[in-house]
Design a protein that fits this description.
This protein is α+β, with helices and mostly antiparallel strands and 259 residues long. It has a single domain, classed as 2-Layer Sandwich (Alpha-Beta Plaits), CATH 3.30.70.100. The chain is 39% helix and 27% strand. The protein has helices spanning 2-21, 46-63, 91-103, 105-114, 161-178, 212-224, 226-235; strands spanning 33-41, 67-74, 82-88, 121-131, 148-156, 182-189, 203-209, 242-252. Strands 1-3-2-8-5-7-6-4 form an 8-stranded antiparallel beta barrel, surrounded by 4 helices.
Length: 259
């Protein structure tokens, strides 16, 4: 009797340990709001934009309750853009922080000083997002040497966003890990892509690689993986589930919290 109870307890302990060791594919996401902002400079002002963030802007963001996640520039140097992510508790907090930031005399002084010879920013693009349940915990950290990041944006075929997320949940994420890619965060936009796309969100996610070449090599082996080929074929028996895939390789600025 005692031996039977002991064996049962040992079996339960073993099963519990195995369950804890098994990687989780979903988790409860936070309610935080994330904002990607892409700054396009006026001609000849790219370096000035990057430097203004270095010297002033990031600190003023923090002063007004915005969390700096990461700041990047494209590896393709012909693309003169500064891309960064901020996080907020929610949309109301975001709007209040930006209102306070815009009216801060310290910020107005910075604008006057840095734009004495003309405006620095021609246009700002924004993407609002929330964490998806397939995302790991967003960790703002540095690694040495600094990594290269890849921002990938998926537009699902009409009505196929759940299918796309299921494929990531069941197959893609594990295969990315197998082929040496590091997961940074997986997000869903809070605004639909366009009226003709069923009002779906887009999937926006970030990977980290040792270099751009390493990232492209990882994707080459990923696409040739027999498990991926089967998963893709099985998931697309009724037609393609992605309409558009965009990839952008990024290097962190020297003042980026995430490197």
């Amino acid at each position: 009797m005692f031996r039977s109870i002991a064996c049962s307890a040992l079996l339960m302990l073993l099963m519990s340990s195995l369950a804890q060791a098994r990687p989780k594919t979903t988790r409860a996401p936070t309610d935080r709001l994330y904002e990607i902002r892409v700054y396009h400079p006026t001609p000849g002002k790219y370096a000035e934009i990057v430097d203004r963030f270095r010297q002033y802007t990031t600190r003023l963001f923090e002063k007004h309750g915005m969390e700096n996640i990461g700041y990047w520039t494209p590896t393709d140097t012909s693309r003169k853009e500064l891309i960064y992510i901020l996080a907020y508790p929610d949309k109301a907090a975001r709007d209040a922080s930006w209102k306070a930031f815009g009216s801060d005399p310290a910020w107005k002084e910075v604008v006057t000083k840095t734009e004495a010879k003309g405006k620095l920013v021609a246009k700002v693009d924004q993407i609002f997002m929330k964490e998806s349940d397939i995302s790991p915990k967003i960790r703002v950290k540095e690694k040495s040497p600094a990594r290269v990041f890849e921002m990938r944006t998926y537009t699902a075929a009409p009505g196929k966003l759940p299918n796309l997320l299921n494929r990531f949940r069941d197959h893609t994420i594990k295969l990315f890990s197998k082929h040496g890619m590091s997961h940074v965060g997986y997000f869903l936009t809070t605004e639909p892509t366009a009226p003709d796309e069923s009002g779906q969100a887009r999937l926006v996610y970030f990977l980290a690689h040792e270099s751009e070449a390493a990232g492209k090599a990882s994707f080459d082996t990923f696409r040739k993986d027999a498990r991926w080929i089967k998963a893709k074929a099985d998931s697309e028996k009724d037609g393609a589930i992605t309409k558009k895939v965009e990839s952008l390789y990024l290097v962190p600025t020297d003042y980026s919290p995430m490197k």
